[in-house]
Structures are given as structure tokens and as C-alpha cells.
Design brief:
By secondary structure, the chain is mostly helical. The chain has a domain of 131 residues: Tetracycline Repressor, domain 2. 68% of the residues lie in helices and 0% in strands. The protein is built from nine helices and no strands. α4 packs parallel to α7. The radius of gyration is 20 Å and the shape is elongated.
């Protein structure tokens, strides 16, 4: 990298971007104040001037990743109104993001958002809006919509989580004995498409039985 940033010129965004760069190269273990300080060529106390240690750093990074992820997904859904297509695009965009940035995805999904925090509440609302965008045309009642959102989230998140574990195995982070279904002789791409087909059928069933 170029000349290290001087301590007095650092901004919170500098810290977040440096942390994400470390995260992409080295995985979750690199998400720490000491590692980011080395990346920027400064002493750790310079980080504490802007963020509350490792906890504050992880929060800032998680919020930045969520914001980037939602922007990326929404950009792919512009001018599309057919609900099944929206659902597929959103599901594929999420999987693509996880495959491109496994460490970012892990940090993003593991961080527990708090509705009482204004910044985090905004991310939560944006996330729900993105989710509902692909389902709103089904015109579900509030209870049915919650059921569908939970079902879709569990299916997509669960599938991607297992894929991420498979990737970790290949990289030596977990043992091969912990692998199972994702190693069977069947394309995970095909299985993902079948799962999305099943979700669409299930959503339609819920819609028809919604009272």
C-alpha cells in the first residue's frame, strides 16, 4: 500500500475500508483493532479515537457491509415488477454476494441488529423493505407476510450457510467429517433453483389460504 495515513488525518470511513480490505484477504480473524492499525501504519490508540475498540469496529464494518449489500441487491431489481422474478433475483443476489465475499457475509449475518439504535434501525427497515419488495405483490396479510418472510429467510440463509461451511472446509477451517449434504453428486446450483421453485409454490399456497 502507499504512504501510511497519519493519525490525525484518519476518518471512521478510513478505518472501515481498511478493516474490510483485511477481512477480504484474511477472513474474520483479521477484523480487529490491532490488525487494522497495522494495515494503516498507525498505533492502535489512533483507532480508539474514532471507534469503541473491537466491538465498535465490528459494528461499523457490519453496518457498512449491510448498506453495500442492500444497494447491490436493489440495483439489480430496478424496473422489475413480476414477483417471482423479484424473488429469484433477490435470492440469487444474496447467494452471489456470499460467494464473492464469504467473510463479509459472515460478519454481516452474525451481527445482531438493535432496533433501538437509530443507525441500525435504518438498516433493519431498509432490509425489510428490500425483502418485502419481492413479496408485496402477493398482497398477503400482515401475519401471512411475516410467515413467508421467516420461511424464505430460513431457507435462503440456511442454504448459503451450508455452502459457506463447505467453502471453509476446502480452505481448511473445518474438517471434512463435518461435511455432508453439500458434497453429494448433485449441483448446488440446481438444488438452489429447486428450492426457489418450492418457495414460490409455498408462497402461492399461503396466499390462497390467507384469511
Amino acid at each position: 500500500m502507499g504512504r501510511p495515513l497519519k493519525e490525525n488525518s484518519l476518518t471512521p470511513q478510513d478505518l472501515v475500508q481498511a478493516a474490510i480490505a483485511c477481512l477480504d484477504r484474511e477472513g474474520e480473524s483479521a477484523l480487529g483493532v490491532n490488525r487494522v492499525a497495522r494495515e494503516l501504519g498507525v498505533k492502535p490508540p489512533a483507532i480508539y479515537k474514532h471507534l469503541d475498540g473491537n466491538t465498535g469496529l465490528r459494528r461499523a464494518v457490519a453496518l457498512e457491509i449491510w448498506s453495500n449489500y442492500l444497494t447491490d441487491c436493489q440495483s439489480q431489481m430496478i424496473d422489475i415488477t413480476e414477483p417471482r422474478t423479484l424473488l429469484r433475483i433477490g435470492a440469487q443476489a444474496t447467494r452471489d454476494f456470499a460467494q464473492r465475499y464469504p467473510a463479509r457475509y459472515a460478519v454481516m449475518t452474525q451481527y445482531q441488529m438493535r432496533p433501538t439504535d437509530p443507525e441500525e434501525a435504518e438498516i433493519i427497515q431498509n432490509s425489510l423493505h428490500f425483502f418485502q419488495q419481492s413479496l408485496q405483490l402477493y398482497k398477503l396479510s400482515e401475519d401471512a407476510l411475516i410467515d413467508v418472510m421467516r420461511m424464505v429467510n430460513a431457507a435462503i440463509y440456511g442454504f448459503i450457510t451450508r455452502e459457506q461451511q463447505d467453502l471453509m472446509t476446502l480452505n481448511g477451517f473445518i474438517t471434512r467429517e463435518q461435511q455432508d449434504l453439500m458434497t453429494l453428486n448433485r449441483s448446488t446450483d440446481q438444488s438452489y433453483e429447486v428450492m426457489l421453485d418450492a418457495l414460490i409454490v409455498a408462497i402461492e399456497y399461503i396466499r390462497q389460504n390467507d384469511r
